[in-house]
TrEMBL record:
Keywords: Transferase. This is Glycosyl transferase family 2. Pfam families: Glycos_transf_2. InterPro entries: Glyco_trans_2-like (IPR001173), Nucleotide-diphossugar_trans (IPR029044). Residues 9-133 form the Glycosyltransferase 2-like domain. The keyword Transmembrane does not apply. It comes from Sphingobacterium detergens. GO terms for molecular function: transferase activity. It comes from the Bacteria.
Amino acid sequence: MNSLAPVLLFVYNRPAHTLKTLAALERNKYADQTILYIYSDAAKDERAIEAVEEVRRIIKKPWYFKQVKIVERDKNWGLAANVIDGVTKVVQEHGQIIVLEDDLETSAFALDYFNKALDRYKEDEQVMQISGYGYPVKNLNELPETFFFRVANSWGWATWDRAWQHFNPNIDELVSDFSEEQIHQFSIEGKENFWKQVQELRTGKINSWAIRWYASVFKKNGLVLYPRNSMTQNIGNDGSGTHTAAESTYQVTLADHPVHAFPTEIAENVQGYEAIKYFYAHRKGSLFNRGIRFLKKKINKFKK
């Protein structure tokens, strides 16, 4: 393995989540040899000031990484602008990057996995991202240890400058020439609401960097490496986040061992595609389960 990729962590106003994210990352193999960048966004309003200040106290503690570089925003950028700006600057400087947000718990083997994959596929132009998250699909153990899938995932990921340079923040430029068949394939044969996210972004209903990154990857016929056993767990699906909803559908068991096998063929894995497509189609579960999740969302919204 060549030089280790820096980690870029985005934090905002969730001190408990930030603490857990940093503690898990610190337990990783290679943590003490890794440069950590932390971008701390400023409070959007007076209600967030205290929590933002607490987060900033936490990130300034003596964490045991090779080096910690903190960027404190003096105004609120919002997640999308913060991510786009931060990733662009750091990946241009280092050539490769691992990206986390303040609601992601990592396996102790996450940095090992990311760095192995970044090193292995650095010259393969079609490979545009390494996903840390692995879907909780049925018959999980029947999948290869790692495999390629088309969707770019935002729950812990890595990339190279050569891939990120294809990121286009202008969603209209990205999708204006999408055919009906491309929309169908972009949405995994209509099983996931990715095209709905595109439409909501175009109308200003959401402001997602992630759907623009996926569209950028898709337009280049890019591929994303996924682990069978997830290297990241989203701990923000408790309703506390800016862009999260309270549900357990995507909960996983973190990998308890390192990854050794990587695909030699640069092509989307059919078995992985079908497993994730089935997950998308059935993730909402029965009407009873949907009702339970709806009530949880309402309860969390009320608590706020």
